[in-house]
Amino acid sequence: MELKEFFENFAEVMDLDDANSLSENTEFKELEEWSSLSALGLMAMIDEQYGVSLTAADIRGSKTIGDIIEKIKSHSNE
């Protein structure tokens, strides 16, 4: 998975103007744009783009974008 592409996809889901402001250390739940609807959008994007079905518990258990990336990687190895 290419990080730049993931950040761009994440920014699109979150309706952010600048994907360059994101990093693996970004605490996505602290973003002003974060909501339960964006969580659903994030889950749908991950399923569509990466073929991985994350659960709401996976999202709740994540703090940073890096945590989400690690969950995608671990689920894609299953």
Question: What does this 3D model show about the protein?
Answer:
The protein is built from four helices and no strands. The chain is mainly alpha-helical. It has one domain: ACP-like (Non-ribosomal Peptide Synthetase Peptidyl Carrier Protein, Chain A, Orthogonal Bundle), CATH 1.10.1200. The model has no long low-confidence stretch (mean pLDDT 94).
Query: From N to C, what is the helix and strand string?
Result: HHHH
Q: Which CATH class is shown?
A: Mainly Alpha
CATH architectural group: Orthogonal Bundle
The number of helices is 4
What's the story with the biggest beta sheet?
Answer: none
- Proportion of residues in β-strands: under 5%
Percent range of helical residues: 55-70%
Counting DSSP E segments of at least 2 residues, the number of strands comes to 0
Question: Can you describe this structure in just a few lines?
Answer:
By secondary structure, the chain is mainly α. The protein has helices spanning 3-14, 36-50, 56-60, 65-76.
